Amino acid sequence: MVEFAMNHTWLVPLLPALSFLIIIFFTRPWPRLSSTVSIAFMLSSFAVATLAAYGVFTDAQFKHEPLVYAIRWFGMEGLNIDVGVLLGPSSAMMIFMVTLVASLIQIYSTGYMKGDPGYSVFFSYLSLFAASMLGLIISSNLLQLFVFWELVGLCSYLLIGFYTHKNSAREAAKKAFITTRIGDFGMLLGMLAIQIIFGTLNLYELGQIMPNFEDYTTAGMMTLIAVLLFIGPIGKSGQFPLHVWLPDAMEGPTPVSALIHAATMVVAGVYLVGRTMFLFVEVESAMYLIAVVGAFTAFFAATIAVTQREIKRILAYSTVSQLGYMMLALGVGSLTASFFHLWTHAFFKALMFLGAGSVLHALHHKADVWDMGGLIKKMPITGWTFVIGGLAIAGIPPFAGFWSKDEILLATFNEGHYLLFTLGAVTAFLTAFYIWRMIFLTFFGEEKPDNHPHESPLSMTIPLIVLAVMATVGGLIGTPMNPHWQEWIFFGESHHIVPNIPIMLVSIALAAAGIGLAYVLYIKDRNKANVKDLAIRFKPVYTLLYNKYYMDEMYLWFNHKVVDGSARMTHLFDIYVVDGIVNGLGAVTKGTGGILRYTQNGKIQSYALVFFLAVLVITILLAFNDTTSMALVLGGVSK
Amino acid sequence: MSFPLLTACLLAPLLAALIIIFLPKDESKLHKIVAVIGTFVSLAISLYVFFAYDKSIGGIQFVERINWIKDLGVTYYMGVDGLSLPMLLLTNLIGFTAVFASWNIPNRTKEFFILLLVLIAGVMGTFITQDLFIFLLFYEVVVIPIYIMVIIWGSSKRVTKEYAGMKLTIYLLIGSAFLLAAVIATFVKATQITGTPDMSFQALAQVNFPEQFQIWMFLLMLIGFGSLLSMFPFHSWSPDGYAGAPTAVSMIHAGVLKKIGGYGLIRFAVYVMPAGAAYWSPLIAVLGVAGCAYAAMGALAQKDLKYIVGYSSVSHMGYVLLGVAALSVVGVNGAVANMFAHGVMAALFFSMIGFIYERTHTRNVSDLGGLARQMPKLAVGFMMAAMASLGLPGLVSFIPEFTIFVGSFERFGLLAVVAIAGIIITALYVLRAGANTLFGTPREKYNHLKDLKGVEMVPLVVLGAVLVIGGLMPSLLFDMVDSGVAPIMSHINEYLPTAVQIGGKY
Hints:
The structure holds two protein chains of two kinds. Chain A has helices at about 1-5, 10-25, 30-55, 90-110, 120-140, 140-160, 165-200, 205-210, 220-235, 245-250, 255-265, 265-275, 275-280, 285-305, 310-330, 335-360, 375-380, 380-395, 400-415, 420-445, 460-475, 485-490, 500-525, 530-535, 540-545, 550-595, 605-625, 625-639; strands spanning about 65-75, 80-85, 480, 480-485. Chain A is mainly alpha-helical. In chain A, helix 19 packs across helix 23 (about 500-525). The longest helix of chain A is centred in the last third of the chain and has 47 residues, at about 550-595. Helices cover about 70% and strands about 5% of the residues of chain B. Chain B contains 21 helices and two strands. Chain B has helices at about 5-20, 30-50, 85-100, 110-130, 130-140, 145-155, 160-195, 200-205, 210-230, 235-245, 245-255, 260-270, 275-300, 305-325, 330-360, 370-375, 375-390, 400-410, 415-440, 455-470, 475-490, and strands at about 60-70, 75-80.
């Protein structure tokens, strides 16, 4: 069984892909059947993934050598591409996590999407999304990975724009696609350079080649490749400055937000950098760039999250911020910490998004946290699981987020990036603050009389409970006492990080301070130190943050003025200059024809005139060319 | 001699046209059925030939050769290789679906389908002949039906259909004038050198033309084929022409007719004049890149759906030129495959726009919106074409584009980057068009519109299937193209500076 699963890991993406086809072509008219098919295939995929992961994690040989098998996809002289499976600890962990979260989200969706006219289509998209993401994870070739990378983008486009009749959804979907496309452009260039220089895009082969890259190219070229390749993850994983699409992606149904913003699409960028770590480690400046972009994004997004009012928006910026942490960890060279955080984040963020969905479901899509309050009494399961998520992301032990975040901070500190460490620590404080601000405002405090909340159905609360369990214990496999994670998932050599008690304490203290401040501001002294007063007192800062540093406006301006402006210029050039020349040539031809027309007017006199003139010209020419002929002609005339 | 499959393939639409001539004028249903049968036979034969062709042997297969004009060395020489087969298949895929896209032609169905069938046969002829003279003959044949069809069944928007038809035709004729000069000069020179007249491409390619001669001839051919391929700056017929033309003509013209330019460039210009190709390839690359970027920007400013796709096709042909300019197996393979991919995608796009226009009587993006609610199937077709246009992996156009990028990046470096940046602009205009046409608040006035049904589904199903199959199994297309391109490119390296030879490292 285990061996079968490992040798047929391609079933993991294939099964949801099949369910996509079945729903689209056969079961679409019957919503319940569609969701049943979808969930059944997803769970089978989960089973295969679990078996494969079990196989990997019970055989120590996979620590250093992944299982690789591939077939030819297409090829020609100078360009050969194969597709296949690369199964190692990282990909085994990822397929397990993604299939688990995707299954839970599909089960949750049966409740959340109930009665929606696009119910079947929604499940087909979810299946395709899962298939693309799983394909991306097991890809053995960079081009194959890119194919799935783009398909993931397509699915997110379809899902964000799922409510096709809403203009805002339409715009958000378009924005997501185009923003990530900018990243893909960079990534494509990087891939092209790799193909041309190294002659292969096979990840395993590249891993073998890279340590000796000097045989192929210069260090400068390697830096360029690394930077280009990194632009892809900047777009996909919502790093500064291409993060703008991610908060808008909230236009999709909430389960989509959970799927996109927690387990799947957005971590694709982190995963890609992890997968191509062999390339980045060769270029120190690229690594530093990744670390800086990550740390800055983490901090930047956290400051925005502090002022946002919509529950899903806060979570979206929090995701951007957490992805920044993962990038930071990669940048300081710790694949272990990065993927550990990716793993824990998947659970607690999916939990919180689904919890937010449950809240929205109960409040009929009222999204402003200031309009909520005291919900925990009416919605205990949603509320308490959400609190667990909040403790996990804030970094309170023993919840999952604490262990992974601590690992990141520790790695940053150990590598000597003290500035980045400080940024990371401040972000940890901000994170605890903004998440608990949201939790206090939503679930605690006074109840609002207009709200008539009710707990969501079991189909929605059971996934919440499962995720809450994972968010609680998910980090225990990588604690200093129990460092299984560190033994398996690493780049190069596994290194046991000695626990650093002061850093651990600082991190706990910051988290507690953040929660405490949120408690004071939003529960205890809520009426005394009115928060609206705070906003007024710090109005410039507040406005700047609330408007997300006006980045959207800048991009809009650029798009409308610069891009569209030059497009209009091009258009005018085309119709006036290029076409002008063409029509001009036409007019000249016509005009010439018009003039020449007079030579053929049917009057004998004018023909005779032409005839006479022609004879005259010929005569003169002959005359001046040759004296004897001149004499001949003139002589004849004179006689 | 075995059964003349290629001739049968060529004659099927002509025979159908002949039958329609004798049918009564108002039996429009019958006209359509005959046209469907005629194009279906061709499609079936070309599918068979595509899969029966032996790639391991390569070369020209399914040969039929009959001497025709001895003094000029002209033979009725039919035969296909890996370069012509994808084009043949493409022609018949589009020809077949174009009949269904024209299902609702309101008037003069008899004349319309006769002309359409002649057009299809004409285009097909250029791809399956291996004789330069016959190639040129078919090339001229296609001009006549195009012109008539545009001015009778076309539509006037920004420009009148008469203007559009004239522009389209005159450009085509000017191109062929340059070409004719080049053909005559090449033939005369070749006969001088070898002593025996022979008009077949293979024979001409064996001739050792002087380098200076090759350079001049190649330039003439570049202008001739380039204007047909809507090479910048000879592109301006393309958006106007497609906008004015009826759906089926836009499909065939953008889908395959245009590709005669690219096909001829490779089959004739590069193959016969390799030194000329090497000399001019930097210029081709510059014009290709200019076309990509310029037309993409142009498309961004358009309001009319057909203009958007028209400019987009100019932009995509820029990629084809860039691939050809790379003058490597990888680049030219990409160019040929991209011609196929773009053909399928453009045909699907134009057919969907045609259906939208039929129903709403507008193509103006700002008058449309929210159609996905009212016509979900049509929306699927439109989005598939749009996604193929922006080069989404998993659809047929991604791997060709990628291959072109590999080939051209290898040779031209930074210049190619400009073209690759075009993928962002393409995404911008294509998604904007899709979003503003299909998504957003549905409009009440379109509530009564019917979605695609019955035979109207044929273009979507056939072309959509090709988009997906070609995307998932690129080797189906590439192994074929490669078997045709590799022999043509086998000697090109002798004419190129050594640094750009394939497989080399920086």
